[in-house]
Amino acid sequence: MNIKKVGVVGCGLMGHGIVQVAAQGGCTVIALETEQAYLDKGISRIEKSIAKLASKDVKKGKLTEDQAKDWATEVRGRITGSINREDLADCDLVVEAIVEDLDAKKELFGALGKLCKAETIFASNTSSFPVAEMAVASGRPERFVGLHFFNPVQLMRLVEVVRTDATDEDVYAAARAFGEACGKTPVSCKDTPGFVVNRLLVPYMVQAINMLDRGDASAADIDAAMQLGCGHPMGPLTLTDYVGLDTTLSILEGWCERYPNEPAFGIPDSLRSKVAEGKLGRKTGQGYYTWEGDKKS
Ligand code: CAA
Ligand code: NAD
């Protein structure tokens, strides 16, 4: 099963990166958004990222200026934006990267199940929801996987490939091959809460927020401790801002509802209150830190 044409639904923080790495991997890609303004923002991020990667390759001596320019033009040329779901009808694969809201994801897959060709494989980039529930909503559970990319997609080398009890073997193999074509190393995961990475990472982020809220240490010291003491590239509070406080809260709310007796899945008060105030982290300029563009101020 050869994946040549890919639809990516949602061109936000994750979606724009997935569009880009799929195009870098040689696929023709349609990026679908709800509104032209969101699409324009996502495409502009892609263009900046492609330009950055191209100029890095020139600096490293991997490509000449002309080769880098041709590469950037080729990758950009494989991407088309759309705000019309019907444009995904003949995709070989559709990857969903919309907000972490299970009802919204189910509604989307229900509609895509009716409009896409019978061979189309569906994948969700969900951080935390059961893949099997979306698979059932799509009406084609045997052609459904989780493809969980990491933020920033252009730089993080992992993709978790999640198969449910219903996923066909050749669909799983095609999804894995697609992950590799995107330049990622796939790991195989069962359909469990948070798969591998988030099951470990999100409770760790929660513990760091609790530590800050109790006044045990400052945000800067907690982050420095994990960077310098454990060699992490970012501390947990910077990472929470980076992921998005809204996404982190949605992950935890889903887990707390489904697994009320699991102590690792508590929701810190400060996370709830910051989200209620619209302080969503790097994307809004304020979270556990203040941000100016992509950098902490
Ligand atoms: N495209 C192209 N280039 C990019 C880029 C992008 N999207 N983002 C950053 N870069 C470039 C920067 O411009 C910079 O280039 P120069 O060296 O030329 O300046 C370079 O990459 C390094 O970036 P920074 O200087 O900003 O910072 P850094 O050295 O700390 O690296 C990082 C950034 C790779 C993100 C690193 O901090 C890191 O690995 N952080 C941890 C990220 C992480 O844990 N992600 C997982 C989150 S959890 C998740 O995704 C799952 C979920 O479901 C919630
Ligand atoms: P985001 O809010 O940055 O982007 C979501 C985008 O989807 C928005 O641009 C929105 O306009 C669009 N959208 C919403 N409903 C849509 C619909 N019905 N059709 C088309 N577009 C729609 O969110 P994000 O951080 O990119 O997260 C997207 C998904 O990826 C979530 O499931 C999240 O859990 C998961 N994820 C997030 C991260 C992270 O670090 N933020 C990492 C891995 C996975």
What does this structure look like?
With 297 residues, this protein is an alpha/beta fold. The protein has 2 domains: 5-190, NAD(P)-binding Rossmann-like Domain (Rossmann fold), CATH 3.40.50; 199-284, N-(1-d-carboxylethyl)-l-norvaline Dehydrogenase, domain 2 (Orthogonal Bundle). It is built from 11 helices and 10 strands. It has helices at residues 15-24, 36-59, 65-77, 102-115, 131-138, 169-181, 197-214, 219-230, 236-243, 245-258, 269-276, and strands at residues 5-9, 28-32, 79-82, 93-96, 121-124, 144-149, 158-163, 185-189, 291-292, 295-296. The strands form 2 sheets. The chain has an 8-stranded mixed sheet with strand order 3-2-1-4-5-6-7-8, with helices on both faces. A two-stranded antiparallel sheet has the order 9-10. Helix 7 (197-214) crosses helix 9 (236-243) and helix 10 crosses helix 11 (269-276). The longest helix has 24 residues, at 36-59. It is globular. The mean pLDDT is 97. Acetoacetyl-coenzyme A is lined by residues 49, 52-53, 127, 150-152, 154-156, 197-198, 201, 233-234, 239, 243.
